[in-house]
TrEMBL record:
<keyword id="KW-0548">Nucleotidyltransferase</keyword>
<dbReference type="Pfam" id="PF01467">
    <property type="entry name" value="CTP_transf_like"/>
</dbReference>
<dbReference type="InterPro" id="IPR004821">
    <property type="entry name" value="Cyt_trans-like"/>
</dbReference>
<protein>
    <submittedName>
        <fullName>Cytidyltransferase with RfaE bifunctional protein domain II</fullName>
    </submittedName>
</protein>
<dbReference type="InterPro" id="IPR014729">
    <property type="entry name" value="Rossmann-like_a/b/a_fold"/>
</dbReference>
<dbReference type="GO" id="GO:0016779">
    <property type="term" value="F:nucleotidyltransferase activity"/>
</dbReference>
<feature type="domain" description="Cytidyltransferase-like">
    <location>
        <begin position="31"/>
        <end position="123"/>
    </location>
</feature>
<keyword id="KW-0808">Transferase</keyword>
<dbReference type="InterPro" id="IPR050385">
    <property type="entry name" value="Archaeal_FAD_synthase"/>
</dbReference>
Length: 162
């Protein structure tokens, strides 16, 4: 920690710097995305498995507005983007964290040209945004099977029932 700022904060990368920062990462570079609103065991396990597919892992987060457009509920996200980015950046498996305001991360995928595109097991390969582009460049697309059935929605339902 330097000057009170934890080292992991350096992993937070504005979208307009992603292509340049990606160039400095050891390959193969893996890309995944999501809301990661209330991080749970399922999230961290999936991220660790995604990282194991390559030498670096880029995680793109939906902005708060993008999360709201997904219809997850009026009170979502619970945690603001800057907080979600810091928590994800603090994970050992994560190399860079960025964000996108669109409904999908396609522009980021095209900008950073990952070698591997990964999503959780609830996403079949043919539905993963950017899959065709990554495959056309000779990359891989992986749908990572869930080891721990967890969901933020279920967790919030449990909290609210207390």
């Amino acid at each position: 920690m330097r000057g009170g700022v934890p080292a992991f904060e350096a992993k937070i990368c504005p979208p307009d710097q992603l292509a340049a920062r990606r160039a400095a990462l050891p390959g193969p570079v893996v890309f995944t995305n999501g809301c990661f609103d209330i991080v749970h065991r399922g999230h961290v396990t999936c991220l660790a498995q995604a990282r194991a597919l390559g030498g670096s892992l880029i995680v793109a987060l939906n902005t708060d507005a993008s999360v709201r457009r997904q219809g997850k509920g009026d009170d979502r996200p619970v945690n603001a983007l800057e907080d979600r980015a810091a928590v994800i950046a603090a994970l050992e498996s994560v190399s860079l964290v960025t964000w996108f305001d669109a409904d999908t991360p396609l522009d980021l995928i095209l900008a950073c040209t990952p070698d591997v595109l990964a999503k959780g097991g609830d996403w079949p390969v043919e539905r993963i945004v950017g899959a065709a582009d990554v495959l056309a460049r000779g990359g891989r697309v992986e749908s990572i099977a869930f080891e721990h059935e967890r969901s933020t929605t279920a967790l919030l339902r449990k909290i609210r029932s207390l």
